[in-house]
Amino acid sequence: MLSGTPALADDGFGIDGSVTVNAVLDHITVTPVNPSITLVSGDTPTLQFTATANYSNAPTAIVTSSANWTSLNPSVATIDMNTGLATILTAGSTNISATFGVKMDDTTLTVSAETSDTTSGGGGGGGGATGVTSLAEYMTGDGRVITSATAESIDGKVKLDIPRGTIVKNRNGQRLYSISIKPSSTPSTPPDDYKFVCLTYDIGPSGATFNPPIHLTFKYNYLQVPAGVAEESLVIATLQDGKWIEFEGCVVDKINNTITVPISHFTTFTVMAHTAAASFEITGITVNPDEVYPYEIVTVSVTITNTGGLAGSYNVILKINDLELQTRRVTLGVGKSEIISFKVTPNTAGEATVDVNGLSGKFKVNKPVPKGRVAEVLVSPAPASFIISDLSITPDEVMRFEKVTIAALVSNTGGTKGSYTIILKIDDKEEARKRVILDAGKNEKVSFSITNDITGSHIIDINGNTGQFTVHLLTPLPKPVGALPFQPSTNWWRFGGIIAGLVIIVGILMFFFRRLA
Hints:
Layout: E1 2-10, E2 16-23, E3 25-31, E4 36-39, E5 46-48, E6 50-55, E7 61-62, E8 68-71, E9 77-79, E10 85-88, E11 92-100, E12 103-113, E13 132-134, E14 149-152, E15 158-162, E16 167-169, E17 178-183, E18 194-196, E19 201-204, E20 209-211, E21 214-219, E22 235-240, E23 243-246, E24 251-253, E25 258-263, E26 268-274, E27 280-288, E28 291-292, E29 298-306, E30 312-320, E31 323-332, E32 337-344, E33 350-356, E34 359-365, E35 386-394, E36 397-399, E37 404-412, E38 418-426, E39 429-438, E40 443-450, E41 456-462, E42 465-472, H1 492-516
């Protein structure tokens, strides 16, 4: 932080005071953005880079001489770590980065020779000098990939994984010979309430198709994630008709700082972070029971959800008959929910109106029963109660990044309407959650779709209901069918012969006995 000049503050009660304002560093910007230089034989040109500090509560400032500069590929260009002056050495590409405090920004410097063929490429694990990967040796004539291939950008921050068996075609329906992944040369700005976490990359050629979809992976710098933004909320976005569209199904790996998503076409891609302030939604007010006698407990509950882009806190206020009785402060991450409950004990008979941040309800307090009289027993319905059943995992054996659908039946076995949060854990780590609201006696099927790239068996847990699925590196062989047990056939001829012999012997014995008699 940079200390600012003292400012005069007013506390709102007519008392003035002096405070010191600290400049809060939000991010830094490196310019020029993605410059390209043509290297003329015999020359050793230089290029000055500039670092600008952007503060959330103060004007921008040039911090070039205070930043720490590095060049990822010094064989292409070196850079003075204190001044930001780059010296161009040879054709190629290098990533230039500046670090100031805990913030970092980078850009890509592309150097081309005056006369050279820059379409060289590689495949199956890395791109060529310009981010072009050849696929010719990895596929058949009809465009089917015969061995897994990888296309990668020159800076190593963007990667495409193309599994064996994928059909890869160009816009004309013929097999695709190469893929290019390069930093975008067209300036672009993120939409409102978003910020780019990585550079934008053009992936081509346009019109290419993949069946099934292939997987795009970005490697991000956690220092570029805006303060207050959970890494799990990062998204890969694609540029369509001038608008950035988020992909669904992004998988963030916080350990390796990567984010992966399946794609089926090529265009411009980047990683974005939601930067909209925390925004809270309050739903599902319940008052239980809704009829009591004085000094009996009434429970008022609501569900609070953070629908904004950043974590934040929110005051939940309970009012009874417009009188503020209780306040609870809740802090929630992005997309998280929490049920807040208040307990009150009314002591006066009559109708009571409940208000929780604009949501209303009511309950009735009956008059006390006079001594000597038997009170009427009021039976309140049982509260909502939920059970999970019919857990299914389809399929239970997949290849890396193939989709697994996990479903379960949620039933409200209680006597009142209520809400319930279903949490999906994989290997004891929360992956997703959904909330349902069900009337008494109703049920609903809830499903999740996930992918996983870690081979081996994985334990599924949905609110205590467990199962498992297995991820294979290659397609699992079909299970052998065991031989049926041998069933010997009955020899009816032999059986009949034995019976006939017995009948003859009995007849002979009867004949002799009669003669003797």
